[in-house]
Amino acid sequence: MGNLKKTYLFYGMALLLCAGWLFSCSDEGTSTSYDPSLPVTIENFSPDSGRIRTQFIIEGSNFGNDASKVKVWFNEKEALVLNVVNNAIYTIVPKQPGDSCTISVVVENDSVAFDKKKFVYHITESVSTVVGKALEAGSTDGSLTDATFQSPRWIAIDWEDNIIYSDEYTRAVRLISLNSNEVITLFTPSVILQNFAFTEDRREFYATVDNGSVIYRFAADNLWVPEEVGTMGINGYFHGMAMGKDPRYLYARQNVGVVWQVDLENGWGDATRFSPEAYNEDGGQGNIAYSPVEDCFYVVSGNRKHSIFRLSADGTTYEKYAGGGGIDGSSSGYRDGPADQALFNFPQGIAINSEGDIFIAEKNNHTIRKIDHRTKIVSTVAGQAGVSGYEDGDPLEALFNTPIGLAFDKEDFLYIADQGNHCIRKLSIE
């Protein structure tokens, strides 16, 4: 608590100092309007390095005095501009702009980039426990400190950053409100619900029971009360569900590897085959997620092929993307590196961040892996391969026990259903 108070005091004093400096500039007559006949210049910035939310000052000329007309960029990430006078801009460092950042300023239609030095960004990473009592199983509702969890499996985040999850053993669907400090049970079906498919605005979601006999709709406007809206109409088991670009359709991954399309306007037994080819998985568990960045689906083949497949948005192309030790491989194991040579051991949960990178929860390796969609390189971002346990802190020293469900909130913080530890964890990279 003492350190926290010191931190607040430091930032408070820094804000006052910066505000005083800016106002002193104004008093000296430098806070004049932008002059389009003169160039915008950057003379210096400080500090030279820092983390997210570091206070940042740019010195120069002809910035004007209207913050609404000024933009500051760290590489391609826009920063929040707090105040502007004609020879100074006060801003804060945005989240993850890159390791080495070119600072650019735009004033109305004029722009300038500073080429004399770059800002060095330091990443802050941590794993923390959000809710649940590690190693203590239960199913008690209540406050975040009192609530207990049995076997959290699938997880999703709504537009208010409420966490919704399904429990594998109790079958309960529960809502965790971080803002209201409470955990409540929404619904307990007779058959476990599988992965959730949220709409783009995150105000409603769909889920099917394991055997596909019922598809439920949960809507915030209806207080998350479940409503039966359809059925798969297909014999088999369905372990994953996603929504694509068109909100009229749901996409469900069957245990044999086929992806089916459900028309929500006529969803009673009207699922049609979407993927062009079934992979011989025969009972394999898996998942599916849609990438709006790439406009495609990523399909997890968990305990049979230990791989990730890429399915085109029109359903015509279904190909191996990562894992299995090669394009035709189905080997399990642990290996980072190029996606086509990487190894996974029972991947299950999948989530895609706002940059389009793919994150995988590995049930048997007890790790969280990342696939960079630009470089197609697989890396470990949290956990220790093959080591189960419970430990918060540095991501690569943290321990998980059978992580399964993954979901990003709107700030790109990753929430993890840590099934064996009976809790919800959070990976912060900023």
From TrEMBL:
IPT/TIG domain mapped to chain residues: 41-121
Repeat keyword on record: yes
PANTHER family: NHL DOMAIN-CONTAINING PROTEIN, PTHR13833
UniProt KW Repeat keyword: yes
InterPro entries on file: 6-blade_b-propeller_TolB-like, Ig-like_fold, Ig_E-set, IPT_dom, NHL_repeat
Residues in coiled coil: none
Name assigned to this protein: IPT/TIG domain-containing protein
Stretch forming the signal peptide: 1-24
Organism: Candidatus Odoribacter faecigallinarum
Organism superkingdom: Bacteria
Keywords for the protein's UniProt record, in alphabetical order: Repeat, Signal
